[in-house]
Design a protein that fits this description.
- The protein is an alpha+beta fold.
- The protein folds into two domains: about 10-115, Roll (SH3 type barrels); about 125-410, Fumarylacetoacetate hydrolase, domain 2, CATH 3.90.850.
- It is about 15% helix and about 25% strand.
- It contains ten helices and 27 strands.
- The chain has helices at about 50-55, 70-75, 80-90, 100, 130-140, 215-220, 235-240, 265, 320-330, 360, and strands at about 25-30, 35-40, 45, 105-110, 110-115, 125, 155-160, 165, 170-175, 175-180, 190, 195, 200-205, 220-230, 230-235, 255, 260, 270, 290, 295-300, 310-315, 340-345, 370, 375, 385-395, 395-400, 405-410.
- The strands form seven sheets. Strands 6, 7, 8, 13, 14, 16, 17 and 22 form an eight-stranded mixed beta sheet that branches. Strands 9, 20, 21, 25, 26 and 27 form a six-stranded mixed beta sheet that branches. Strands 4-3-2-1-5 form a five-stranded antiparallel beta sheet.
- Strand 20 and strand 21 form a beta hairpin.
- Helix 6 packs across helix 9 (about 320-330).
- The longest helix is centred in the first third of the chain and has 15 residues, at about 80-90.
- The chain binds manganese (II) ion.
- Manganese (II) ion binds next to loops.
- Manganese (II) ion binds near residues 125, 198, 230 and 343.
């Protein structure tokens, strides 16, 4: 693929995350203004709410961009998704005749405050990275029982909390919780001491379902993708997770990056899931490549310190695609809604420096990560800022996700000591 040129010069740089090929969707505000829908282009954000109001972006017979969220566009369906992208390409492409009319609706990204790009209807998190599942299973249950017997047959997931999803930049408060004590009859109530990240991709469901759907239908239902950090309290998780899976360990916060990168932008980077180790039931068969080649990284910056990359991996490491996960999610008849968010599961590569959580990077705290200056990390410390990055890199083109950032705030005093 090659770069599609824009009259906004910064968008034509091969390293710019937001070229005309990308056109990711976000919600932003400037100064004390109201949040509005925006599209990132070069180092600018285009106010598409204003554009629609000015009659320069007619998508339907009623406004779709006036709610400060992208849900109405998603609900309008794939025909509108395609029309929107085509109209934006026309407006922002080199030689556009509407350049003069657009200039007043562009703002520097540096001045924009980003908000949640959509209203999350429901949130489900999966466990679909095999390296992660093997690593965690080995630590929790031993190498013999690392992968549960169902793992190679089912994209395992749990129902999370939509209310916990926050946008990049939101502070994350260290939680309190019930933690296993010296024996099973003496649990403790304490601030989480093993607070962690999970590097994931989030798939956004843009169309509803009313019954079981195929993998191809599921892929068509997906609107776009964001980076996702599933903050995880490992000590709380280890005590609570059997037999129904994670609960409070995953309910503090889940951070997403502020820009929805559309399926259309990712299309040139489609790739296949790895070879099946056991045959899947026919309903999970993929009709074509359903993963994407997306470079991912994890950065840590201790308070006042410089950011250090501690992991690099790729979304192509997943064993199950989002389309397979979504199809599986509907098998029971579970209705999916516009704005549902599906976490991929932690994305870990095969090597030590490609692991997507501190639990794996420090091997449960046994091999702490060494940072420049000699600091070490097994789990997160107060003041640590964690940044997830993601980008597809092609022939002189970068499709960037925008960063997914969160800083750890210290636990509050015991909330029950009053
Ligand atoms: Mn997770």
């Amino acid at each position: 693929m090659t770069i599609i040129r824009s009259w906004i010069e910064t968008a034509n740089d091969p390293t710019c995350p937001f070229p005309l090929n990308n056109l990711p969707y976000g919600v932003f505000s400037i100064a004390s203004g109201a949040p509005r829908c925006g599209v990132a282009i070069g180092d600018q954000v285009l106010d598409v709410t204003a554009l629609e109001k000015a009659g320069l972006l007619q998508l339907a017979d009623h406004p779709l961009l006036d709610r400060g969220a992208w849900n109405p566009v998603m609900a309008a369906g794939a025909t509108v998704w395609n029309r929107l992208r085509t109209v934006l390409m026309g407006h922002l492409g080199e030689g556009s005749e509407t350049q003069d009319q657009l200039e007043g609706h562009l703002h520097p990204l540096a001045k924009a405050t980003m908000h949640m790009p959509f209203t999350v209807s429901e949130y489900t998190d999966f466990y679909a990275g095999k390296n992660h599942a093997v690593n965690v299973g080995t630590m929790f249950r031993g190498a013999e029982n690392a992968l549960p017997p169902n793992w190679l047959h089912i994209p395992i997931g749990y129902n999370g909390r939509a209310s916990s999803v926050v946008v990049s930049g939101t502070g994350v408060r260290r939680p309190w919780g019930q933690i296993k004590g010296p024996n099973d009859d003496a649990p403790r109530w304490a601030p989480c001491a093993r607070f962690d990240i999970e590097l994931e991709l989030g798939a956004i469901v843009g169309q509803p379902s009313a019954g079981p759907v195929t993998v191809a239908e599921a892929d068509a239902m997906i609107f776009g993708y964001v980076l996702l950090n599933d903050w995880s309290a490992r000590d709380i998780q280890a005590w609570e997770y059997q037999p129904l899976g994670p609960f409070q360990a995953k309910a503090t916060a889940t951070t997403i990056s502020p820009w929805i990168v559309t399926k259309a932008a990712l299309e040139p980077f489609r790739t296949t899931t790895p070879e099946r180790e056991k045959p899947l039931l026919p309903y999970l068969a993929e009709p074509g490549p359903m993963l994407y080649d997306i470079d991912l990284s994890v950065e840590i910056a201790p308070k006042g310190g410089t950011p250090t990359v501690i992991s690099r991996t790729n979304y192509n490491q997943m064993y199950y695609s989002a389309a397979q996960q979504l199809a599986h999610h509907t098998t029971s008849g579970c209705p999916m809604r516009v704005g549902d968010l599906l976490g991929s599961g932690t994305i870990s590569g095969p090597d030590r420096d490609s692991r997507g959580s501190l639990l794996e990077l420090s091997w449960g705290g046994k091999e702490p990560v060494i940072l420049p200056g000699g600091q070490t990390r097994s789990f997160l410390e107060d003041g640590d800022t964690m940044t997830l990055t993601g980008a597809c890199r092609g022939n002189g083109v970068t499709i960037g996700f925008g960063n997914c950032i969160g800083t750890i705030m210290p636990a509050l005093p015991d909330p029950y000591a009053r």
